[in-house]
Known about the structure:
seven-stranded mixed sheet, mainly beta, single chain, about 5% helix, 54 strands, 24-stranded antiparallel beta barrel, Immunoglobulin-like, globular
Amino acid sequence: xxxxxxxxxxxxxxxxxxxxxxxxxxxxxxxxxxxxxxxxxxxxxxxxxxxxxxxxxxxxxxxxxxxxxxxxxxxxxxxxxxxxxxxxxxxxxxxxxxxxxxxxxxxxxxxxxxxxxxxxxxxxxxxxxxxxxxxxxxxxxxxxxxxxxxxxxxxxxxxxxxxxxxxxxxxxxxxxxxxxxxxxxxxxxxxxxxxxxxxxxxxxxxxxxxxxxxxxxxxxxxxxxxxxxxxxxxxxxxxxxxxxxxxxxxxxxxxxxxxxxxxxxxxxxxxxxxxxxxxxxxxxxxxxxxxxxxxxxxxxxxxxxxxxxxxxxxxxxxxxxxxxxxxxxxxxxxxxxxxxxxxxxxxxxxxxxxxxxxxxxxxxxxxxxxxxxxxxxxxxxxxxxxxxxxxxxxxxxxxxxxxxxxxxxxxxxxxxxxxxxxxxxxxxxxxxxxxxxxxxxxxxxxxxxxxxxxxxxxxxxxxxxxxxxxxxxxxxxxxxxxxxxxxxxxxxxxxxxxxxxxxxxxxxxxxxxxxxxxxxxxxxxxxxxxxxxxxxxxxxxxxxxxxxxxxxxxxxxxxxxxxxxxxxxxxxxxxxxxxxxxxxxxxxxxxxxxxxxxxxxxxxxxxxxxxxxxxxxxxxxxxxxxxxxxxxxxxxxxxxxxxxxxxxxxxxxxxxxxxxxxxxxxxxxxxxxxxxxxxxxxxxxxxxxxxxxxxxxxxxxxxxxxxxxxxxxxxxxxxxxxxxxxxxxxxxxxxxxxxxxxxxxxxxxxxxxxxxxxxxxxxxxxxxxxxxxxxxxxxxxxxxxxxxxxxxxxxxxxxxxxxxxxxxxxxxxxxxxxxxxx
Length: 822
């Protein structure tokens, strides 16, 4: 039990009562053989803590504070060393140095000062776990600097090690028309590569496409270098990037940027990111583009799909989603992305400053510009924001506010632009953007609305201006509106969701409207859903569809499932599918599925689909086959990465923005607990592929599967990576075969029970068990051993030679230690 000690009483204490000392283990020496000479002090406590300098995981008030180097020193006659604290460590822990007593502050003024917790005269307690290299502290809040909930000091952020990586996504696709005796092939390779050097992170993104007509090309989409500016909670970027898109519309640029990164804020101050969802009628090739750049391509099975691993770049622009079905038909629709209202907590702020040239989706550049914005939270109800955009022949400004009220969070922004896209064509206009988000707690309803309205065709965003400069296009949006609703219908009632988007331009095509209305519920283990969708196609036409889905788990472990779907659309087409899917392997490394699909309409047909997925420490391999009358389709996909570091190259699964290299020498086949399908390779390396930046990430090793000749000295570590960092976690191991040696002293006496056994260099190898047997872990069975059972002369001996008894058990004599003889 921890004990709180008031600061007024600490001066009267002569020793560290504030330090929680591990309770002594009751070990009665009288039970041992009479006459045994053995120093039992090292067994009289649960932990034997030596004086040393060690790196510890420190937890303060149940919150992880990072890994810090801590000096362990003994206090007086106490055999157990405990932590002592200097100024730098106290500041890193957030202790308010101004509240320390004058005498303590004077002692800490010495750069080499190191005081135990009791000497600090704080209302505090500590618990040291030397075996796990952890230190748990409890300090009264009034003695700490005030920090937001979830705050992690920048000193705990890990910049990682020097490393390089290539993250790839490959998809090979072939479709054959048996009636026309023709076939088409295409390949896609998406690459995200990078090199980390200190605090600078260099990145490249691009994609390669090849088609059966022989055409192929590699399209680099972005190159940049980035580093943190912790004092500003911001990042500096040089190269290709995107403006943040909070105050102004998102714009792709090539140049310089300094912008806030809300992930550096405490957890309580962060935001959220979007997800792309849809429904495939059959096994289909899914492609997602933004501004004409291919962001994602993969093969999806029939039924609902969800893509939640798009790189979070902060781009707030619509996504173009294309599905190429097994029968050769192609569906394209727009997936809107909405920004949340710009409401901040009191005192919080976000900013952005960009300078460079505009670029389009193909990498071509346009007008140079400078752009900046600022957002400021004033109090619980009001936040304000504003910004400006300056370019040759273009000027825009924005001013707005966000209001938190009992009726929801409102965001209102007014825009003014003046531009001259072509000589003699002077334009001017205004726009108003209104956004609203609200949750009705009593009914569990989430609501959202967004409306952007322009007063004339003269209003231009910078993207409109740049496109008009590039190719003469001038078709500004007149208005654009979107709405969303998510309704929890209570226990057994299911969930209802609605999203809709509509827009109208001043010239060109007629207005467009898309929506999705869905209801989902479950009866026992049977899940079902109904979706009504209107997809706005790129050609301007709309397609209405109604989809019913039903699914149920199969098997004792529920590792399989059967699902059925029925789809009807406004073009008179229909489809029905029955799909069986399952996973296999101890950790679901395998996934596979079979489906029968019936398509109705003018060209009714029945077909079959099959897919297979294999996950491993080296990546993912997937394949699919689809058969329709007169049509055949096949696809092969691979996802993975190669990570180069100081000690070689390690294959890895698809990587997130931040990841870590794990090394445990000799621990081949140990698993990473957070990703059980990932095993350490023959050199003891693996990569944990995803870490959350600026948050505490735990990485644990599961020793199951390891050889019994290697022992993990540490099984879990934690780190707080920076965005883009490549962490390195070294897990100490002890290797060697476990074996037993029977040894006796010079005149046949048994060695003292519990005596320590080391090599001649002092490395501990084991101990003496019952019957004078030495239980050891070492690969060298002939090396000399020292047996130590006390600190006085004559309380040690050395085993130099051993022989094999008839039963092949090793036996030896432990003779007087050479140094004692001297």
